[in-house]
Amino acid sequence: MTTAARLVAALCLAGLALIGSRYIMTSIMPDTTVFGYFLWVNIVLGLVAGWRILGSRVGRGMANGISAGITATAALVFWGVTAQAINEMLRLALRHRYGSPMEAVIAVFQLFLDFGAHLLDGGFIGLMVVGAVLSGMLAEVVSRNWR
Hints:
By secondary structure, the chain is an all-alpha fold. The chain has helices at 4-28, 38-54, 62-94, 101-118, 122-145. This is Tellurium resistance protein.
């Protein structure tokens, strides 16, 4: 069901995905990295995670809203890293870097770990935690005030 809380949750996580992606692009990765659709994919994932995960779990108290915000942000980061790993595997597969399909599938897991290791940055983790808490709180406040 469409509610104001779902809309606000989706916009909050899309904004958090935008800010987090910009942080990754400017502070974590080398300047020579070509990002392609990195930013847009993460924004769409933020919209989906906000709508489906955070938006559906608010309205049960502030502590639950904060918890839902953390859960939705963790899912956003997980699916973002997964999507980027699959995208990179496909890029490399089209350049015939893998000998078999199974080797390409295994490469997704290695790329996931490599990309995830880049995210073990204190600034990024702090940004995601603060954004998760604020998103959960804002979605909870909207859920209480606009039904």
